[in-house]
Design goal:
Order of helices and strands: HHHEEEHHEHEHEEHEHEEHEHHHEHEEEH
Strand content: 5-15%
Structural class: alpha/beta
Number of helices: 15
Radius of gyration: 23 Å
Strand order of the largest sheet: 4-11-10-9-8-5-6-7
Largest sheet: 8 strands, mixed
Distance between the termini: 39 Å
Shape: globular
Length: 445
């Protein structure tokens, strides 16, 4: 824990408020450990039960996480605004930043011409009563999903994939319910589940998606929801194959007690066929964001599902944010209809594939195993994340530690290929190999 911050309070509420204040001001940074329960109780002259209740409240609100002998720590992305950014240390000057998980800005479609054309034809301002899902956007989205084998009779839109998943979980589950998620998996999703007061169950994932034994174990453990990444899984690049989809469909068939959520955030960038699970359970949703192919600032996702599930999501939006901007909907529709944009997205997918596959092959040539069938990231198992991240940083490469993505999975690091060019692959692979097999320091007489 940061030596300059002193947790205070005589009640569990006051202690939890003190910890939250430390997080908000930045005195307690993501990953910082909190004192052991008995140690803090002795320091504050309160009972251990009082401190334990404070820590329990912080866990339920998603601010901290407890990991056995590693103690209680501030979550990597606690759900509270802070006065200063403290998520990941900035890269060293001159280092290549491969930790962001963002698409290559050079391969995103330019929005200016489309916005200019939209401004000329948008017509009079839209009022509250007329604001909803644009019928023309819904029609195109329905066609695109149906072509991929997703039942799309019922459709709505949300403010991105994570917004859609949050609305789904909030509409169907209650605090304390268990959610099965991929392990390793999307760090933002893990933090969202914690912030909603839900209990996480990790499901092992291999190159073909969530494993059948892992999903079966999660169901036995009482999972009320299952979140599956269809393609370009973050951080491993896994994609659900036809055989895996068939096996999971048989396992999930008829599970009326389970909410099935599929996240196809990469969409056209994935470069492999989609094998959806949609409809395997009576209650299901399929979420497809536009952020990776078209730009992170386009906060829109299409959500298809069974009638009751889509109605719940749309209904909760109506009493909250209301709707996704129709200006944004029209812009996305324009991008979908533009042949030049479609060609650019196709070329972007091919470019990511070359860089990703090239890096995996270069690593293999150095004896390093890596995972990355689809998407913009690769996952490299490592013995020690801290040593690997530090060694690569010292060599001029900033990569993401795997800890924010893991529940019980083995250590690893994530490398985003978006900033890489072909000439970078061999030097990076060599640096990774050296980082994983450092030369022991010698002894002198």
């Amino acid at each position: 824990m940061a030596a300059h911050y002193q947790i205070g309070g005589a009640t569990s509420a006051a202690i939890s408020a003190s910890v939250e204040s430390g997080i908000r001001t930045g005195a307690l940074a993501p990953g910082d450990p909190l004192p052991a329960v008995r140690a803090l109780a002795a320091e504050l002259a309160v009972s251990p039960a009082t401190v334990a209740r404070a820590y329990q409240e912080l866990r339920q609100r998603g601010l901290v996480v407890t990991a056995g002998r590693h103690g209680t720590r501030v979550r990597p992305r606690p759900p509270v605004a802070t006065r200063r950014a403290a998520l990941l240390p900035p890269p060293l000057p001159g280092a290549r930043d491969l930790s962001t998980g963002q698409p290559d800005s050079r391969l995103l479609p330019p929005l200016g011409p489309h916005l200019a054309a939209l401004a000329a034809e948008i017509g009079p301002p839209t009022g509250y009563a007329a604001s909803a899902v644009l019928p023309e956007l819904a029609a195109v989205a329905r066609d695109r999903l149906t072509a991929d084998g997703v039942p799309a009779e019922e459709i709505t839109v949300t403010g991105g994939a994570l917004d859609g998943i949050e609305r789904l979980l909030a509409a169907h589950l209650r605090p304390g319910d268990a959610v099965a998620v991929e392990d390793p998996g999307w760090a933002n999703l893990l933090d969202l589940v914690a912030a909603l007061g839900l209990r996480v169950i990790g499901v092992p994932v291999d190159d073909d998606g969530p494993t059948e034994p892992g999903v079966r174990a999660a169901l036995t453990a009482g999972a009320r929801a299952l979140v599956v990444t269809s393609r370009a899984q973050n951080p491993t690049g896994a994609a659900v194959t036809a055989a895996r989809a068939d096996a999971l469909r048989r396992l999930l068939a008829g599970r009326a007690d389970l909410l099935l959520i599929e996240d196809d955030h990469a969409a056209e960038l994935a470069r492999v066929p989609l094998h959806p699970l949609a409809g395997a359970t009576p209650t299901w949703a399929f979420v497809r964001s536009v952020s990776k192919p078209y730009g992170p600032d386009l906060r829109l996702a299409v959500l298809a599902g069974d009638e009751a599930t889509v109605a719940r999501v749309a209904g909760r939006a109506r009493v909250g944010a209301g709707w996704v901007s129709t200006v944004l909907q029209r812009l996305v529709l324009t991008l979908w209809r533009d042949p030049a944009t479609a060609d650019l997205v196709c070329r972007a997918g091919e470019s990511y594939e070359r860089r990703r596959d090239g890096l995996v092959e270069a690593l293999a040539a150095h004896g390093v195993s890596a995972h990355g069938r689809t998407g913009i990231n690769i996952w490299i198992p490592v013995p020690d994340e801290t040593l690997a991240v530090t060694a690569l940083r010292d060599a001029g490469w900033s990569v993401a530690p795997g800890a924010p993505h893991r529940i019980a999975a083995a250590p690893g690091v994530r490398i985003t290929v978006s900033p890489l060019d072909g000439s970078d692959l061999d030097p990076l692979a060599e640096a990774v190999a050296r980082a994983l097999r450092p030369t022991p320091a010698g002894f002198t007489a």
